[in-house]
Write a sequence for this structure.
């Protein structure tokens, strides 16, 4: 394959080769019967060498713009604690954000937190289709298959997407330790907010630091809300997930809260 991404041809063989060489997702604990279907769309900062780092340095790609720092470890902790399946992305959100509508302007961001992404500045329609076929479609097909499998086994399922956010962006300080995001269906979000806000040392955001109107609820809407399933998106401030102790602490807080919330909502 050529080294410059937007010079690729669009034949199916190239998409197939990309899927083989650089899979879009991993599924863990697919057969577990716990209450959640966990998603982690921003789990990785990896950019294949054929994309030449999208013109960014390793340090730049490993900032919060390239992935959600600590989110995968947290999602894996929750999957283990709650005996639930997890689907996570293996490539950087900078190639394609799997938590956006593919037609959205920020699905392949040209700029993120005031940093230009050179490899996305002049992405052709051919390359957009290729990334969608390589990354977006297989990830969401895997989630669809898991949801259908769980439904066929009669398992109650809540779709939960796990993310992290930077403490400061564009000069704005974000005080929340954790944010609970929801859209029209607020059942699980309201239950989690009640549990988390009962802990006096936590600053808990309700549709903070993001809200569905910003396009960030795409995956949970597609796989949860539109199927009538309980659904929520969880955002933890990434400086709280910087080491194993932080991961364990937040895994405990959130797994306990999810257990209580699910019990209150009849998912026992």
């Amino acid at each position: 394959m050529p080294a410059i991404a937007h010079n690729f041809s669009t034949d199916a063989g190239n998409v197939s080769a990309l899927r083989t060489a650089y899979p879009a997702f991993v599924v863990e604990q697919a057969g577990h019967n716990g209450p959640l279907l966990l998603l982690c769309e921003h789990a990785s900062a990896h950019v294949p060498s054929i994309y030449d780092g999208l013109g960014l340095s390793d340090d730049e790609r490993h900032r919060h713009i390239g992935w959600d720092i600590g989110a995968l470890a947290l999602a894996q902790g929750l999957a283990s604690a709650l005996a639930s399946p997890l689907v996570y992305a293996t490539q950087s959100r900078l190639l394609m954000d799997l938590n956006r509508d593919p037609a959205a302007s920020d699905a392949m961001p040209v700029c993120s937190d005031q940093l230009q992404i050179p490899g996305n500045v002049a992405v052709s329609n051919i390359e957009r289709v290729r990334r969608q076929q390589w990354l977006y479609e297989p990830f969401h097909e895997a989630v669809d298959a898991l949801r259908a499998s769980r439904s066929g086994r009669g398992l109650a399922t809540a779709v939960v997407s796990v993310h992290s956010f930077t403490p400061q962006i564009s000069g704005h300080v974000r005080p929340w330790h954790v944010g609970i995001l929801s859209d029209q269906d607020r059942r699980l979000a309201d239950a989690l907010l009640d549990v988390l806000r009962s802990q006096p040392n936590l600053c808990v955001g309700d549709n903070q630091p993001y809200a569905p109107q910003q396009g960030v609820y795409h995956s949970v809407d597609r796989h949860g809300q539109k199927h009538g399933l309980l659904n929520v998106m969880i955002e933890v401030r990434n400086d709280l997930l910087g080491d194993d102790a932080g991961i364990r602490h937040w895994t405990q807080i959130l797994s306990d809260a999810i257990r209580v919330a699910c019990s209150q909502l009849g998912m026992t």
